[in-house]
Write a structure and sequence with these properties.
This protein has helices at 2-25, 65-70, 97-111, 178-194, 197-204, and strands spanning 30-36, 48-55, 77-83, 90-95, 115-116, 126-139, 142-155, 158-172. With 206 residues, it is an alpha/beta fold.
């Protein structure tokens, strides 16, 4: 009886390890992105903008050949979760790349007290996001992410302020795609939060 119990105890951990290995190797159709919001600050309360996003990447391929092998079932969707200080993480939704940037930056604008207009209007400035690059490479045993965009304010179709933000990061490759998702989430949070929105409004005199 004791021998049978010992074998059963050994079998369960083995099954767990095998199951975890299978899950790690499973191909995902989306990429998880965790965006970490900075602390709230109503420094721009009373402002209203209309937000629009344009994808201006010259190379729309996200992955290099080796990285693409790990994301061969990728459908172009990113599952966005938002970490708000003092609150639980919330899953916001699944978006294509332009909508991913737009949704995150809307959250950032609202964090500063800015209201988001539902429709374009002649008397409301446009906060425009132009995605310049979004690249995920697997080089050697490291995941590398390279992301860049331009944020600008326009009024009556005239540019009144703009700022370009770029960033890159790398992480050691582990089993599955989790390492890639962590490096993407880290650099995405960094470059969204690096944008100096207060200075952008000061330059625009809004």
């Amino acid at each position: 009886m004791g021998l049978k119990i010992t074998n059963a105890c050994l079998t369960l951990p083995i099954l767990v390890v095998v199951l975890m290995g299978c899950l790690a190797c499973a191909k995902k159709s989306y990429i998880d992105v965790d965006y970490r919001l900075p602390p709230a600050a109503d420094t721009l309360a009373g402002r209203t903008v209309f937000v629009e996003t344009r994808d201006l990447r010259s190379d729309t391929q996200i992955f290099n050949r080796r990285a693409k092998a790990d994301f061969e079932d990728f459908t172009g969707l990113f599952s966005l979760s938002v970490d708000t200080p003092g609150e639980q993480q919330t899953v916001v939704g699944a978006y294509n790349l332009p909508k991913l940037f737009e949704t995150a930056l809307k959250r950032r604008l609202q964090r500063l007290g800015i209201k988001i207009a539902a429709e374009r209007s002649a008397d409301i400035p446009v906060f425009q996001i132009k995605i310049d690059r979004f690249r995920i490479n697997l080089i050697g045993q490291k995941w590398q992410a390279d992301i860049g965009y331009e944020a600008s304010l326009t009024r009556d179709s005239q540019l009144i302020a703009r700022e370009t933000v770029t960033g890159s990061a790398e992480r050691l490759k582990l089993i599955g795609s989790g390492g890639a998702e962590k490096v993407i989430s880290g650099i995405f949070s960094e470059i969204i939060n690096r944008l100096n929105i207060e200075r952008l409004f000061q330059q625009a005199k809004l």
